[in-house]
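ok new one. same drill as before - structure tokens go in, u give me an amino acid for every spot. 367 of them this time. try not to just spam alanines like last time pls lmao
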């Protein structure tokens, strides 16, 4: 009955090329026979190998098990290889088409490398994604000399002149490009103050040689802002670092730097006072092995326990308050992200589409 209905359905819909997987080769003769005897529109069946992808499964029966047994959160869970899941994760149609073009078609079974799909989305997002600064694991930085008279004079002059760059209370707006790969993407203004968050991993109390991030007595540039120097490390009673006291170089403002100081490290940051809070969902590969279906045990035993890591409270620059579902973002030095459907006015949620580099391959090589 399937063969009887298959050809008629294609014929009614005027399908010229009915694309099937290789297991339908023995069915083609009957498919053609029914069309010939019924004298209907001559659809034709073509068979190609299934497009399998590494580190996942492509069987609808296995998808159903994953959904029904709650290993994933529905058919559009961003770890699934369904189109609706890829869309929710932030994959673009252009990147998927590029992947398909690169893989091509074949008459024998093969497994396409998931790393190639990730490469295609990175290439596309690098061109179209707006850059934003988001701190995942915050460490507070206090710039002790930021309220100096020089700043107050500059702030006063800005208020009398270009006004839009001045913020009352010794704060200011700095300007940063939206996407250096797209000259037409323009610039945005980011609030800067004497209290900032940087990534905890961007500071080391006893750094090794050639460590270019922040350390005691060492200088770095804050993206689109100033050069700062770490003067003091504040710890709690348990010896945990809670705050860094730093000083800034007033003449080192990005785009207007006359300090003559050259530093090798540039850090992203957010102003404590102006930061918004958001949840980040960091997705990774659903399975630990390249081809779960070919392993001896049940395929579900190879599920990657670290396929989802949630950052409950990350701190983002305020422009992300107006993020849109059809926009893509690069969180600087972290990865590419898109707004999730679970977002609301009370809670902003971003899904990680892909990391900036293929960290998975690096980890596998180490192992």
């Amino acid at each position: 009955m399937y063969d009887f209905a298959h050809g008629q359905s294609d014929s009614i819909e005027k399908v010229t090329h009915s694309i099937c997987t290789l297991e339908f080769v023995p069915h083609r003769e009957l498919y053609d026979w029914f069309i010939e005897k019924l004298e209907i529109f001559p659809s034709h069946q073509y068979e190609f190998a299934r497009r399998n992808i590494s580190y996942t499964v492509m069987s609808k029966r296995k998808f159903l098990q994953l959904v029904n047994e709650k290993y994933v959160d529905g058919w559009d869970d961003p770890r699934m290889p369904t189109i609706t899941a890829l869309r929710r994760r932030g994959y673009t149609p252009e990147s998927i088409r590029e992947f398909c073009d690169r893989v091509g078609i074949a008459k024998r079974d093969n497994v396409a490398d998931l790393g190639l799909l990730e490469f295609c989305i990175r290439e596309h997002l690098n061109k179209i994604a707006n850059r934003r600064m988001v701190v995942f694991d915050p460490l507070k930085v206090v710039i002790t000399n930021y309220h100096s008279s020089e700043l107050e004079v500059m702030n006063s002059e800005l208020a009398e002149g270009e006004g839009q760059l001045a913020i009352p209370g010794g704060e200011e707006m700095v300007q940063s490009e939206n996407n250096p790969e797209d000259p037409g993407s323009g610039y945005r203004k980011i609030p800067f103050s004497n209290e900032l968050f940087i990534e905890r991993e961007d500071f080391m109390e006893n750094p090794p040689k050639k460590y270019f991030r922040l350390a005691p007595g060492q200088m770095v540039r804050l993206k689109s802002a100033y050069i700062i120097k770490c003067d003091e490390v504040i710890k709690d009673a348990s010896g945990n670092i809670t705050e860094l006291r730093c000083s800034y170089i007033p003449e080192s403002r990005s785009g207007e730097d006359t300090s003559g100081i050259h530093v090798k490290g540039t850090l992203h940051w957010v102003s404590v006072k102006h930061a918004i809070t958001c949840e980040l969902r960091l997705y990774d590969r659903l399975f630990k092995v390249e081809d779960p279906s070919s392993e001896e045990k049940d395929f579900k035993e190879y599920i990657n326990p670290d396929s989802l890591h949630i950052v409950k409270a990350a701190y983002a620059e305020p422009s992300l308050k107006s993020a849109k579902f059809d926009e893509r973002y690069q969180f600087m030095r972290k990865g590419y992200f898109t707004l999730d459907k679970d977002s609301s006015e009370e809670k902003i949620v971003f899904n990680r589409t892909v990391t900036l580099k293929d960290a998975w391959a690096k980890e596998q090589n180490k192992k």
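The chain has three domains: 1-48, 53-132+277-367, 134-268. and btw The helical segments are 2-12, 28-38, 60-68, 83-89, 93-103, 114-128, 149-160, 359-366.
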